């Protein structure tokens, strides 16, 4: 069986996902195209030898409707014979693209793959593909009752694990502080590809809010405690706010993955490899708890204990998600999202899995860590988990 290695990983800066955001004037195809161009230029490979491009994207409508990876490859000047496909596993789409790329190489179907994700949330509004339609159907509703939004699920998770509002806000403030500190010491410099926009070059994350404190966040209102939700969940103490939730963001990221043999042939030095991956489902009403069993499953597959993991990346869809996960896994604060997460760096849905993996690989290299674990909650009550080993 071939061994898959990660040769490089880059991402865009994170832009606010609204009109006027740093990347809002860039079409998502052109945003991803710049990443694809930057990735092959950094490695020096001929883009014509790429076997496939696997791209995570959640909002596959409007400007992201025509297989965005294919359009981005054409815009980037790749030969027309290089194909692409789009992967959608909700927030884990970019991570699933990486896992599929590794599995394809190990199976012998590919020699070289680019895996990544893109989401322009300023231009393709979250939920716009669904519109007013009911995606669940009567069978799901009969089995589980009416489904809820992810925000309500975050409230239910906070309630189940008895996570106080103060803890949510403190965690959120820490995310911004860690991301700001990482940026200050140049921790994101190598992973960020400067993006050319109609308004100039963007080379730093727009989403990090300096000076964020728990006290400031405490003044924000809970946003999901509508009358209908309060009537259905009468015992919930509503505490999820815009400040302790992930940010709506524009962004893209991509990784160059190939067989170890091909890397040697091309005189490229592998930076990391995927040790194990797993995907699981969990309670669709709580929705955001699957990272817990996914973590247990991937650790068992890898034959590793939590003590052997240098850094854990648990996507900060809402602060209650990593805090509930931490309660169950018993991981110390220092190893959990050490450079901040989606609360500070944003959550460009289909791109987040690739963004997090990119940041994790660079963090392991910077700190001398060997193993990192990444897991993401996903709508519908699912989660991916991946363990990566730094080879640098």
UniProtKB/TrEMBL annotation:
EC number: 2.3.1.16
Keywords attached to this entry: Acyltransferase, Transferase
Top-level EC class as recorded in UniProt: transferase
A molecular function GO annotation: acetyl-CoA C-acyltransferase activity
The keyword Endoplasmic reticulum is assigned to this record: no
Entry keyword annotation includes Acyltransferase: yes
Entries under Pfam families matching the protein: Thiolase_C (PF02803), Thiolase_N (PF00108)
Active-site residue list: 91, 347, 377
Domain Thiolase C-terminal residues, every copy: 269-389
SUPFAM superfamilies xrefs: Thiolase-like
The Thiolase N-terminal domain, residue ranges: 5-261
InterPro entries reported for this sequence: Thiolase, Thiolase-like, Thiolase_C, Thiolase_CS, Thiolase_N
Family to which this protein belongs: Belongs to the thiolase-like superfamily. Thiolase family.
Entry protein name: Acetyl-CoA C-acyltransferase
């Amino acid at each position: 069986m071939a061994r898959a290695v990660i040769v490089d990983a880059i991402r865009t800066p994170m832009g606010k996902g609204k009109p006027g955001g740093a990347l809002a004037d860039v079409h998502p195809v052109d945003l991803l195209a710049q990443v694809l161009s930057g990735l092959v230029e950094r490695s020096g490979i001929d883009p014509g030898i790429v076997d496939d491009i696997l791209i995570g994207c959640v909002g596959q409508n409007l400007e992201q409707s025509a297989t965005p990876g294919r359009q981005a490859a054409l815009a980037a000047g790749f030969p027309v014979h290089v194909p692409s496909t789009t992967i959608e596993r909700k927030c884990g789409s970019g991570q699933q693209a990486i896992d599929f790329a590794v599995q394809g190489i190990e199976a012998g179907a590919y020699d070289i793959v680019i895996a990544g994700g893109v989401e322009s949330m300023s231009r393709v509004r979250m939920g716009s593909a669904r519109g007013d339609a009911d995606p669940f159907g009567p069978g799901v509703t009969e089995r589980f009752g009416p489904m809820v939004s992810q925000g309500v699920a975050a409230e239910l998770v906070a309630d189940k694990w008895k996570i106080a509002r103060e803890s949510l806000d403190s965690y959120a403030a820490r995310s911004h502080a860690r991301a700001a500190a990482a940026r200050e010491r140049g921790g994101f410099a190598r992973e960020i590809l400067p993006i050319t926009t109609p308004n100039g070059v963007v080379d730093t994350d727009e989403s990090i809010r300096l000076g964020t404190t728990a006290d400031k966040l405490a003044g924000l209102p809970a946003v999901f405690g509508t009358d209908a939700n309060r009537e259905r969940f009468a015992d919930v103490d509503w505490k999820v706010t815009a400040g302790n939730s992930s940010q709506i963001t524009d962004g893209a990221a991509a990784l160059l993955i190939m067989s170890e043999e091909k890397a040697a042939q091309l005189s490229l030095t592998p930076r990391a490899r995927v040790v194990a991956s797993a995907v699981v489902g969990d309670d669709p009403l709580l929705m955001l708890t699957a990272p817990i069993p996914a973590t247990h499953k991937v650790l068992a597959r890898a034959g590793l204990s939590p003590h052997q993991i240098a850094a854990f990346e648990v996507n900060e869809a809402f602060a209650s998600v990593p805090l509930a996960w931490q309660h169950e896994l018993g991981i110390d604060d220092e190893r959990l999202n050490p450079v901040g997460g989606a609360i500070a760096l944003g959550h460009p849905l289909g791109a987040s899995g690739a963004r997090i993996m990119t940041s994790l690989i660079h963090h392991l290299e910077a700190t001398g860590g060997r193993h990192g674990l990444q897991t993401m909650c996903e709508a519908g009550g699912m989660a991916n988990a991946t363990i990566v080993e730094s080879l640098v």
